[in-house]
Amino acid sequence: MNIDDPIKRFVEKDTDVEEMSPMDPPEAFAPSTVEPVAYEDMHPILQKLMDEHKVFVKVLDNFESALTEWKQNKWIFNDNINKNFKELFSFLDNNTPEHNKKEEKQLFPLLHKKLLETGEHSTGDIPKTGVDIMEAEHIQVAQLGALCLNFLGLGSRMQDKTSRELTFEYAYSQGKEIVEIMRLHIYREDETLFPLAMKLISKDEFENL
Ligand SMILES: [Fe+2]
Ligand SMILES: [Fe+2]
Q1: 140: pLDDT confidence band, cut at 50, 70 and 90?
Q2: Residues 69-92, mean pLDDT to the nearest whole number
Q3: Which domains are delineated in the chain?
Q4: Which end of the chain is more exposed for a tag (fewer CB within 10 A), N or C?
Q5: Which ligand is nearest to the CA of 137?
Q6: If you measure from the C-alpha of residue 134 to the centroid of ligand 2, how many angstroms do you get, rounded to a whole number?
């Protein structure tokens, strides 16, 4: 990962945690106060997004175990690996764009405005909010997905064993990165951004989204 990556840079700026784990997420964009909101109390628009997250997490779990199996298997594919890889890439192709578009078109513009108004943003020439990070990650994961798929195709066509394995190792790392970014991304939306949305966006405003 490039050190100049704006997301990484922004995340690192606000946290002292060396190792980011979805199980132990850092205060990524350190909002001052986030009261937890139970699923039942979330607006239906947010509940729908959270439901879609659950499905995605399952796909990510399967993909991750397939990645591990593939590596242990010395980069030889089998039916289970193929199935779980296919599931991930078809999810990235068919489900994720629509989900992201819903967030970006329906929820994020007003939320971004509210976060700026309430001071929930980074200090800098151009103040950034959690919404900026989420949007950047949507693009980043789509790019990683395309890269990973391309490396898989490239490696499969390589005759030379060493080159093929090296190419597959790249694909593997990109796959792992997809899993890690997405898990943290979903965690931040569910646990930080959506509760903030509930706090900052009124019922009436939700109805007009
Ligand atoms: Fe998102
Ligand atoms: Fe999402």
Answers
A1: very high
A2: 98
A3: 41-115+125-207 (1.20.120.520)
A4: N
A5: 1
A6: 8
